């Protein structure tokens, strides 16, 4: 009887050893399946953040390569919580979805003026909102009284400028069927294009418009308090990174609770909606 037990134990050890070997082999072949997203980031030593760098005051890249903005400070808080440094990776509005989902993965998350939408949530992960958002316009200060509704803008003689590939262009195409829509490649240059008379109106967000009004007296945002849409801005990432999503949401929750999120709103002159 004792001999049978020992033989059974040996069989168990053989089976366990085989399983362990198989596990090690699986780890070698598919390391991404055996480490959490956060563990991989910690081992790398830095958080890779995709951002457009063209969206003052949420994400802007200076000529020297330095980034600043509301979203940039949010990214820094996330990296701090993970315990790593940070590296910014250039993306764009037309390529944002493809860049999030590309293989091999080029960044861990995307941040900076990204509106939470059902369409994005169908194929990617989006965090809780950390900033209220909505469509509005920029125009020349002298024309502020002229544009008080979508109907005032949706006329053939009104030149509406938008950046390509994002929700601003989508909104213009869906809601301005009579206006002349001009697609301009560089989002950060559109306010100046309007101020200099190359367009009459810019479709933008309530998160972006105040900064330009404060920094360029030629511009106005007459519908800032009456946005055409209502939404929130969040952090975007690929599916399968649920542990990172949980951490990001925890950072946002903590910042709401301790008042630091409100302080960021005040720093950048944005509406606090929480």
Keywords:
disordered N terminus, five-stranded mixed β-sheet, 274 residues, three-stranded parallel β-sheet, 11 helices
Question: Helix and strand layout, with pairings?
Answer:
Blueprint (H helix, E strand, L loop, with lengths): L1 H28 L7 H8 L1 E6 L2 E2 L3 E3 L5 E2 L1 H13 L2 E6 L5 H6 L7 E2 L7 H6 E3 L4 E3 L1 E6 L9 H4 L5 E4 L4 H9 L4 E4 L6 H6 L5 E5 L3 H7 L3 E2 L10 E3 L2 E3 L3 H17 L1 H8 L7
Order of neighbouring strands in the sheet with most strands: 11-10-12-9-13
Structural class computed from helices and strand pairing:
alpha/beta
- What proportion of the residues form beta strands (DSSP E)? 15-25%
- Helix share, percent: 40-55%
Shape: elongated
What is the alpha-carbon Rg in Å? 24 Å
**Count of helices?**
11
| Main sheet summary | 5 strands, mixed
Poorly predicted runs are 1-34
Terminal CA distance reads 71 Å
For the secondary structure, the number of strands is 15
Determine the mean pLDDT. 88
| Secondary-structure element order, N to C | HHEEEEHEHEHEEEHEHEHEHEEEHH
Question: How would you describe what is shown here?
Answer:
With 274 residues, the chain is α/β, with parallel strands linked by helices. Helices cover 41% and strands 20% of the residues. It is built from 11 helices and 15 strands. The strands form 5 sheets. It has a 5-stranded mixed β-sheet, sandwiched between helices. Strands 5-1-6 form a 3-stranded parallel β-sheet. Helix 3 crosses helix 10. The longest helix is centred in the N-terminal third of the chain and has 28 residues, at 2-29.
């Amino acid at each position: 009887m004792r001999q049978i037990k020992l033989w059974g134990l040996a069989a168990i050890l053989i089976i366990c050893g085989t399983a362990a070997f198989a596990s090690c082999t699986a780890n070698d072949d598919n390391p991404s399946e055996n480490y959490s997203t956060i563990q991989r980031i910690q081992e790398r030593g830095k958080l890779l953040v995709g951002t457009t760098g063209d969206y003052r005051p949420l994400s802007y890249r200076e000529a020297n390569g330095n980034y600043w903005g509301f979203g940039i400070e949010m990214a820094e808080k996330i990296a701090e919580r993970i315990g790593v440094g940070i590296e910014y990776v250039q993306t764009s509005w037309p390529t944002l979805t493809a860049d999030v989902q590309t293989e091999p993965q080029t960044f861990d998350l995307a941040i900076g003026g990204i509106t939470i939408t059902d369409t994005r949530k169908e194929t990617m992960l989006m965090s809780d909102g950390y900033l209220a958002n909505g469509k509005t316009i920029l125009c020349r200060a002298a024309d502020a009284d002229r544009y008080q509704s979508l109907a005032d803008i949706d006329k053939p003689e009104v030149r509406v400028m938008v950046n390509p590939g994002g929700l601003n262009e989508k909104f213009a195409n869906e809601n301005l069927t009579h206006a002349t829509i001009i697609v301009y490649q560089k989002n950060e240059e559109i306010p100046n294009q309007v101020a200099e008379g190359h367009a009459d109106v810019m479709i933008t967000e309530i998160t972006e418009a105040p900064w330009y009004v404060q920094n360029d007296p030629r511009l106005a945002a007459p519908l800032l308090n009456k946005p055409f849409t209502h939404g929130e801005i969040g952090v975007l990432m690929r599916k399968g990174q649920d542990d990172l999503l949980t951490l990001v949401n925890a950072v946002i929750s903590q910042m709401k609770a301790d008042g630091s999120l409100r302080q960021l709103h005040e720093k950048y002159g944005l509406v606090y909606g929480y």
